[in-house]
Amino acid sequence: MHDRTDAAPSPGPLSDDPAVLRAVAEQVAHEAAAHLRSLPPPRLPSGGDVEGAVRTKSSPTDVVTAADEAVEALIRARLAQLRPGEHVFGEEDGGDAARARWVVDPIDGTVNYLYGIPAYSISVAAVQHGESLAGVVVDPVSGCTWSAARGGGATLDGRPLSVTAATDLAQSLVATGFSYRAERRARQARMVAGMLPRVRDIRRAGSSALDVCAVATGRLDGYVEHGLSWYDWAASGLIAAEAGAVVRVPGPPGATAPDDGLGAEAILVATPGIADALAELAREQGAAEV
């Protein structure tokens, strides 16, 4: 487990060095994970409202728990202490994306958290002009920590990461995820159904950050999904890229997405040997319309 409370290295006031930002992100993410573990878990009674779910967002199934809000509040408070004056863009409390230095997802995989499924994560990324400079993803259950700094490589618990050497899409394990909105979920299901016979198999864990980190770790060969937000991939996307993956993301809010036929809201992360083939398969199966 990684419950670090020591002060982050500080070679100078508010350094822009990606290694320094990475150290701050690691410290804050570890503290957030420890805080989440200390909170009473939400309960799912048989019938009635979920205890611990405080509101919904895009649909009745897209819930926000008291833990989401508590973890984000702690992250914001610690960043204000360690990096005073820097703007935070978070999933729960939002913010000005154009001014963001930090992009935060307090619990990615909230539904898993609600149901006691041990597949959720905390993401903290440092950005500059919309580009990730450092990123950390922590699994609060296992304590595993994925970390990267731009130009400095990616690690899992300090061990360097690299993607698989897969070159045959038919033998590749690919992950995906689904929207909380029923109409988009149906379109995603049709795309995935068309892709399934052309790959080794499909996985759906419920935390996009963990899936993208799994590509970085070599546990998956590729990942494709539509409709994610900046806080979902700001940290994990950098980790995958620094591990050698091809990473296609829509960009931060307000950015112009790549015009490549995958759809404006698509994220695709893959080992280089299958990236082009995976993208082409997604296009063939209607990715642009998802």
From TrEMBL:
EC number(s) reported in the record: 3.1.3.25
Gene3D superfamilies: 3.40.190.80, Fructose-1,6-Bisphosphatase, subunit A, domain 1
Single annotated GO MF: inositol monophosphate 1-phosphatase activity
Keywords from the UniProt entry: Hydrolase, Magnesium, Metal-binding
PROSITE patterns named among the record's database cross-references: IMP_1, IMP_2
Class of this enzyme: hydrolase
GO biological process: inositol metabolic process; phosphatidylinositol phosphate biosynthetic process; signal transduction
Region listing for Disordered, in residue ranges: 34-63
Taxonomic superkingdom: Bacteria
UniProt entry tagged with the keyword Magnesium: yes
Binding-site list for Mg(2+): 91, 105, 107-108, 232
Obligatory cofactor(s): Mg(2+)
Reactions it catalyzes: a myo-inositol phosphate + H2O = myo-inositol + phosphate
Protein family membership: Belongs to the inositol monophosphatase superfamily.
The protein's name in its UniProt record: Inositol-1-monophosphatase
Gene that encodes the chain: suhB
